[in-house]
Write a structure and sequence with these properties.
The structure holds two protein chains of two kinds. Chain A is α+β, with helices and mostly antiparallel strands. Chain A has ten helices and seven strands. Chain A has two domains: 101 residues, Ubiquitin-like (UB roll), CATH 3.10.20.30; 136 residues, Orthogonal Bundle (Fumarate Reductase Iron-sulfur Protein, Chain B, domain 2). In chain A, a hairpin with a 2-residue loop joins strand 6 and strand 7. In chain B, helix 1 packs parallel to helix 10 and helix 12 runs parallel beside helix 14. The chains are: A alpha+beta, B alpha/beta. Chains A and B meet through helix 1, helix 2 and helix 4 of A and helix 3, helix 4 and helix 9 of B. Bound molecules: flavin-adenine dinucleotide, iron/sulfur cluster and FE2/S2 (inorganic) cluster.
């Protein structure tokens, strides 16, 4: 394929005013090897069809807005080059396993509510938080314990790849569990015990069936599968301790 | 009036609304709730907070940390970097507050890059005499934003309305009274009846075609305040970042040069030595060569391009950013995102090949005129972050002062707005609701525009605006070009008022309609930039003229510009004195003088 040829995008569309059934629509856009898939969508929006609806913002794979299914796989549209999709056609669908608001726009509310529920924030020791005139110390080795999990951009691709989330939407899911591990593993954190209940609950870590697709699709190398395993180890350890030493305070 | 197109405006009562969930808005929300946990605070944003543009900031945030640094030096670098257009009391307060604010973020979990013994690591940025930039690899804004967002989850008193698009501020005889907007998913109008509001809506880089900014950086907050007579200050000062990817404008952080990266022209020469920034030693010298300030570097590129010494790329001329000598390990540790961007978007491995770069619009130095607590001339309205002008950036912002500013002034504005909300009387009554309905009607009428009357598409007018700005109000400016831009923008304003053609007439998540509303605000902001530029008959910092006014003129123009918007006509430009305390305007010199340093 050379620049100037047309490449076809087939987009699965849905609108709340036409709730009965989604429909496929095809668009021919000028092919440029260096263009991103997002740029092709913007061309449609600006010049061909202003009704096509999708989210985007940073166009550099860091804001997490632009996820969608591309030829059946969850991807960031800003991070895919047309050259890697040629000759097409390219099939675009909203991220799997989420309710659709319109076209490629999914409802992310479920995930946003899980974040506070799993304690996806650092809980500093009270005296540390109250006296922030200087930074505290943390060695590179201590940072390495959690750093990978701190790279999550909340793009939700892993949820679309997770068969368990597809079956059971109350499963906390890869990113929420990775963010839980991120804070548990931080030497500055004191919030571990508060996260424990969510982790050990039925919809928590044990729902994961270790398929590992989440890690394969993650654009940031977060490796949620490893984070979940870490959580499982912690959960199992707590379970054993609780059996052997009932009433142990943690 | 409730009509077929315009649903009834829903009224929600609260104490304080924060518009914007970027670094400044989140810091303001946290400050407000920590100061007064009893307040009903609403954080509204057109994107979920962690999608805000702060997420894209790469290089780092400035604060005095090292023993060889001092507030005095941070002050001097900032004021000379801003070519003495900075308000010096604001800079004094700013530099003194930065260390505490960055440390606070550390306590909340921000993973600042560390030295082996666990202390925070710092790097050089342009225009600094000491390594003052705290960084979290090259994803500093990402980590800061997620830390703030996650911390905000600890406080249920901060109630969010994500994907709420703010269209208007409403006022009554006492001042700010309401924040009107559209719930994006439902497409219904909502007004927050409130005692106070903080605008934290970010910059306006998208009024230009080539920019490093996210798509949402369209300047509404500035126009929202401008619509109520609040001055937009120093709008002519637009920062071009010298190193962005040709075409897409994706940023290649200044941190690359802070780590020792070099800039080469097509002949392989470190051309900055030809623009008063030398000498070109092999080791980094603070405030020299590649570590010179952004305005000077972007201007040098422009000259090189005119002289035909750039490398051709399909998206225009470029110079080469050479990182090869840093080696694979340092690139992986300090600049991983940049390395990935180069590989992904250019198919280049910076370990082996230099990266082609050219300048792109990056930052809006001007903004809503505020005092040190974010207060504006409209009672109850506060502003913070890139949308505001506290006066710290002057004619050229130093890289990494902005992320620090979000925290320092976001906090100040949040606390001041909380105190205001506590003491101001509650708003009530139906007049606000009627006012809201009338404003909503105006926007909902746009939904019906179609192509039958030959009206333009949103993209057509937006492209024309961006072209006018690139053409007339660029890195180098002259009277003819700026006049042409003013003229074109006036015509575009008239065409916009005459109506746009939308394909999409539905209310639900109608992003075509939202971009039409954005465009109306962007046009107002673009006009303030062009007119303020035309009125500044001198050259200073990022505003450089090639006509009769190519020199700095302290006698007549050591003044801020104040642009007052007019919905029907061009903005009115006035000028006001700059507040100086201890640094008298002097020659701005880079290069030569700096001492040799070793990077650790
Ligand atoms: C690529 C890049 C790299 C950068 N790197 C650095 C750096 O290393 N160091 C540094 O100091 N600075 C850097 N900057 C500058 C700095 O990142 C920005 O100035 C800063 O992040 C702006 O933050 P903010 O909170 O003011 O606004 P933003 O983060 O832009 O947030 C604006 C918020 O307002 C909301 N909003 C806007 N309009 C509306 C509306 N109409 N209705 C509802 N909500 C609205 C948005 O949804 C968003 O939540 C960089 C900038 C860019 C472009
Ligand atoms: S873990 Fe990876 S795929 Fe999942 S949300 Fe985070 S960044 Fe996206
Ligand atoms: S647009 Fe931000 S991740 Fe793709």
């Amino acid at each position: 394929m050379t620049d100037g040829d047309a490449i076809r995008l087939d987009v699965l569309r849905w609108h709340p005013d036409r709730p009965a059934a989604p429909w496929w629509q095809s668009y021919e856009v000028p092919y440029r090897a260096d263009s991103t898939l997002l740029e092709a969508l913007q061309t449609i929006k600006d010049a061909l069809d202003g009704t096509l609806t999708f989210r985007w913002s940073c166009r550099m794979a860091i804001c997490g807005s632009c996820g969608c299914m591309v030829n059946g796989r969850p991807e960031l549209s800003c991070h895919l080059l047309l050259r890697d999709l040629a000759p097409g056609p390219v099939r675009l669908e909203p991220l799997a396993h989420f309710p659709v608001i319109r076209d490629l726009v999914i409802d992310q509310q479920d995930f946003l509510e899980k974040l506070p529920a799993v304690g996806a924030y650092l809980v500093p020791a009270a005296d540390a938080e109250a006296a922030p005139d200087t930074p505290s110390r943390q060695t590179p080795a201590q940072m390495a314990e959690y750093y990978q999990y701190a790279q999550c951009i909340n793009c939700l691709l892993c949820y679309s790849a997770c068969p368990q989330y597809g079956l059971k939407p109350d499963f906390l899911g890869p990113a929420a569990l990775a963010l839980m591990a991120r804070h548990d593993a931080d030497s500055r954190d004191t919030g571990g015990s508060a996260r424990k209940a969510a982790r050990d609950a039925e919809s928590g870590v044990w729902d994961c069936t270790l398929v590992g697709h989440c890690t394969e699709v993650c654009p940031q190398g977060v490796d949620p599968a490893r984070a979940i395993n870490r959580n499982k180890t912690a959960s199992a350890r707590d379970y054993v301790f609780d059996l052997l030493m009932p009433g142990r305070r943690r | 009036m409730v009509t077929a197109q315009t649903p009834e405006v829903q009224v929600i009562d609260c104490d304080l609304v924060i518009v914007g969930g970027g670094g400044a808005g989140l810091r303001a929300a946290l400050a407000a709730t920590l100061a007064d946990p009893g307040l009903d605070i609403r954080l509204v944003s057109k994107v979920v907070p962690m999608r805000s543009h702060t997420v894209a900031a790469e290089g780092g945030a400035a604060a005095v940390l090292r023993d060889d640094d001092s507030f005095e030096q941070h002050f001097e670098d900032t004021v000379s970097g801003g070519e003495w257009l900075c308000d010096q009391p604001a800079v004094e307060a700013f530099v003194a507050a930065c260390p505490r604010e960055l440390s606070q973020l550390e306590r909340w979990g921000c993973p600042w890059s560390r030295q082996d013994d666990g202390r925070v690591q710092t790097r050089f940025f342009g225009g600094m005499r000491v390594q003052r930039t705290w960084f979290a690899a090259d994803r500093t804004g990402f980590h800061m934003l997620h830390t703030l967002f996650q911390t905000s989850l600890r406080y249920p008193s901060i109630r969010r309305h994500d994907e709420f698009f703010c269209t208007d501020l409403l006022v009554d005889e006492r001042g700010l009274a309401g924040v009107l907007g559209v719930d994006i998913a439902a497409g219904t109008p909502v007004v927050y009846r409130t005692r106070a509001a903080v605008l934290a809506t970010g910059g306006a880089g998208r009024v230009y075609a080539h920019n490093t900014n996210a798509g949402i950086v369209t300047g509404e907050g500035m126009a929202l305040a401008g619509a109520h007579g609040v001055a937009l200050r120093d709008m002519e000062f637009v920062q071009w970042h010298p190193t962005a990817l040709p075409g897409s404008g994706i940023l290649i952080t200044e941190g690359c040069r802070g780590e020792g990266g070099l800039l080469l022209n097509a002949e392989g020469r470190r051309y900055l030595q030809d623009y008063g920034l030398g000498p070109p030693e092999p080791w980094p010298r603070p405030r020299a060569m590649e570590l010179g300030p952004r305005d000077r570097l972007s201007q040098a590129f422009w000259q090189e391009e005119r002289a035909g010494r750039t490398v051709a790329t399909p998206q225009g001329g470029a110079v080469l950013l050479d990182l090869r000598h840093l080696g694979a390990a340092r690139l992986a540790e300090r600049l991983p995102m940049i390395s990935e961007v180069a590989r992904r978007f250019l198919g280049i491995d910076p370990v082996a090949t230099p990266i082609p770069v050219r300048p792109a619009v990056h930052y809006t130095m001007g903004g809503i005129a505020t005092g040190l607590d974010g207060e504006t001339t409209l009672p109850g309205l506060f502003a913070a972050g890139e949308c505001a002008s506290t006066g710290i950036h002057g004619a050229n912002r130093l890289g990494s002062n902005s992320l620090a500013e979000l925290l320092v002034f976001g906090r100040a504005a949040g606390e001041a707005a909380a105190a205001w909300a506590r003491s101001a009387p509650a708003r009530a009554g139906g007049s606000l609701q009627r006012d809201a309905q009338a404003h909503a009607q105006h926007w909902y009428a746009q939904l019906t525009g179609d192509r039958s009357a030959g009206q333009p598409r949103v993209a057509e007018l937006r492209t024309a605006m961006q072209a006018a700005m690139e053409d007339g109000v660029g890195i180098f400016r002259d009277a003819d070009g700026m006049q042409r831009a003013c003229q074109t923008l006036g015509e575009l304003r008239a065409r916009y008022s005459a109506g746009l053609a939308l394909d999409d007439h539905s209310r639900h998540f109608n992003t075509e309609w939202l971009s039409a509303i954005e465009l109306g605000h962007s046009l107002q902001v673009a006009e303030t930039i062009a007119h303020a530029a035309l009125a500044r008959r001198e050259s200073r910092g990022a505003h450089v003229r090639r006509d009769d006014w190519s020199a700095r003129n302290d006698e007549n123009f050591l003044v801020h510009s104040l642009a007052y918007c007019d919905p029907e006509g061009p903005p009115r430009i006035e000028h006001a004195p700059v507040r100086l305390t201890r640094s008298a305007p002097a020659e701005r010199s880079y290069g030569g003088a700096g001492a040799r340093v070793t990077l650790d």
